[in-house]
Specification:
mainly alpha, 212 residues
Length: 212
């Protein structure tokens, strides 16, 4: 009996790496994913090594050098204030990546929470989804500009504005998944033994929403 369980554990341990290897091979065969990943890696490396890859202060204003074309001293030329465009692009990657990752994380957290609540609680579903529909009815850029106009031009407000724009779409996806799992037998079993709604959402429904 012990030998059988040991063999089963060995089979499971060997099956997981092989499954991961197959997934990596399948991903590597997708040219779009590989190309996008390489571009993202280049941008991240350039952002991290910005002090080593640039030769000018991105905020340094040199009036006599304004609106110059690409040259050996200024690879991308200069802007209307004489600042080196190449340095501004490299350092700007840090800001863009930071905002992008922050918006992604905030959107996943907020959209997942709204989708779970709307899909699980029937009374809240209707009003909450009508709010999400109203937010989606506005063009994203106009909604983001409106939020920025009210709150001011700050990085935190940019993250907030973009999160508000993208969150309703993810919330609707999560809601549609929760609606299906809400009537599942394992959810009914958890409710039957007296599990709290928060535990049912966190332990049983949320893990099944991970893939989408």
């Amino acid at each position: 009996m012990a030998a059988t369980s040991l063999a089963g554990n060995i089979n499971l341990s060997t099956a997981r790496p092989s499954q991961r290897r197959r997934q990596l091979v399948r991903i590597s065969q997708q040219k779009g994913i590989v190309l996008g990943g390489l571009i993202l890696i280049v941008i991240v490396v350039a952002a991290l090594l910005a002090p080593l890859l640039t030769t000018h202060d991105p905020e340094l204003i040199v009036g006599v050098d304004r609106l110059q074309g690409p040259s050996r001293d200024h690879l991308f030329g200069t802007d209307s204030q004489g600042r080196d465009v190449y340095s501004r692009v490299i350092y700007g990657a840090r800001l863009s990546l930071g905002v992008g990752f922050a918006v992604s994380i905030a959107t996943v957290i907020a959209g997942t929470a709204v989708g779970l609540i709307a899909g699980y609680y029937r009374r809240i579903d209707g009003p909450l989804m009508r709010v999400m529909d109203g937010m989606m009815a506005f063009p994203g850029i106009i909604l983001a500009i409106g939020i920025m106009a009210v709150r001011g031009a700050q990085i935190s407000n940019i993250v907030l504005a973009l999160t508000v724009v993208y969150m309703p779409r993810l919330a609707r996806i999560i809601r549609s998944i929760v609606l299906g799992f809400r009537e599942s037998q394992f959810v009914e079993a958890a409710q039957a033994i007296g599990a709290l709604n928060s535990r049912v959402l966190w332990r049983h429904i949320l893990p099944n929403c991970a893939a989408p």
